[in-house]
């Protein structure tokens, strides 16, 4: 089998920096305990589990906002994740007397500033994003002049109260999603000001998928909760490439692999490098007629990524 690892893939600068901070927090004996992470620090189960083992508890409930989750923390240190939080969350944490550590990615902060500055200039802001994503939660916290647009169908229901309209988006959307929804919005609001905010790391990973050699299948290594990983699958599919999301080498189906001759591999911005490396090595060694190469048990999953 010919194996094409796609580059760039994996950790983006925002995730690298959030993980670096989490490792420092885990070692810092001076921080008030307990230490609670508000939401998943990055959308990857393995990373969250390994930090839990080091004493950093994660509070995660996909049906609750960050503001609601904060009700469950009354003492110690709270860590804000790479996806950012609203000003209300920040204020509430301060009022509760919690020690705050903020790992918000700088690209998310730029997107937040874009929304706020346009609201101050008298625009209504249309925000393309997943309604339950923390970035959308923050956008919505800026008031009624922010309208979340998740699907092309949502466009007909937008009722802006301002004449001036600005359009922006969640940093991890796919170029295709943005394009389809943007075209629909331009038809309804031709004068809308467009400020595209997909972060460079997401764009580079999507572009690399579009430019990959011809393959039978593209494997995207990532957590099912990771928006940017799911978007990599959809970008490949938009190009007519068969693609699937796998969490680790254990999700590879040997019978499926026997039907493939050329495969590519990429990974989401929050996928640990070691997990992707294990997939690449397994696929490179895979021989349909040699059963000793078919055992796809993950050694990486058993070890803590951050324990020294
Ligand atoms: S995917 Fe982009 S916005 Fe999200 S953490 Fe990485 S660099 Fe930041």
Protein architecture, described:
The chain is α/β, with parallel strands linked by helices. It folds into 3 domains: 2-10 and 201-302, Cobalt-precorrin-4 Transmethylase, domain 1 (3-Layer(aba) Sandwich), CATH 3.40.1010.20; 13-105, Rossmann fold, CATH 3.40.50.11270; 107-198, 4-hydroxy-3-methylbut-2-enyl diphosphate reductase, catalytic domain (Cobalt-precorrin-4 Transmethylase, domain 1). It has 11 helices and 12 strands. It has helices at residues 13-27, 45-53, 66-70, 87-95, 106-120, 134-141, 175-188, 200-210, 227-238, 254-257, 273-285; strands at residues 2-5, 35-38, 56-59, 77-80, 99-102, 124-128, 146-149, 165-169, 193-194, 217-221, 243-246, 262-267. The strands form 3 sheets. Strands 1-12-10-11 form a 4-stranded parallel sheet, with helices on both faces. α8 runs parallel beside α9. The two termini are 36 Å apart. Iron/sulfur cluster is lined by residues 12-15, 82, 105, 107-108, 171-172, 199, 201-202, 228, 269.
Q: Look at the structure and give the mean pLDDT.
A: 96
Following the backbone from N to C, one meets helices and strands in this order, namely: EHEHEHEHEHEHEEHEHEHEHEH
What is the count of helical runs?
A: 11
Residue share in β-strands? 15-25%
Bound chemical compounds: iron/sulfur cluster
